Amino acid sequence: MTETRARRSGPAVDLGPPWNVVVLNDDHNTFDGVAHALAAVLPNVSLELGLRIANAIHTKGSFVVWSGHREVAEHYWRGLKERGLTMAPLEQ
After folding, report:
1. How far is Cα 21 from Cα 72, in angstroms, rounded to an integer?
2. How far, in Å, CA of 30 to CA of 47, rounded?
């Protein structure tokens, strides 16, 4: 079997370090509410994984829930904020 890979043409682009989407612990969101918001907004996050992440947010006070390109990070940050989660500013 032959492996095919996409090739990039042109000069390499340095995108810099990834941007982190950080959810903060708060006193008004429930574990279920946080888990549902995470599952609705973030790719590959099931309700079960959302509950584990919600526990980490509660235990640690904050948690990086996604990291990557700035535009995508802004999209996820906005989606979580719109669902009522308490968000830290985007950070690199």
Report:
1. 10
2. 13
The predicted-structure confidence for 15-27, as pLDDT tens digits, reads as follows 679 999 999 999 9
- Residues 74, 81: Cα–Cα separation, whole Å: 10
| pTM across the whole model | 0.83
Q: Check whether 10 has a pLDDT greater than 60.
A: no
Return the closest-CA partner of residue 40 out of 85, 88, 91, 70. 85
- At 66, list the tokens: 């996604």
Across the beta sheet with 62-68, what order do the strands follow?
62-68, 19-24, 86-87
CA distances from 86 to 22, 30, 67 (A): 9, 12, 17
What are the residue ranges spanned by the domains of the chain?
27-87
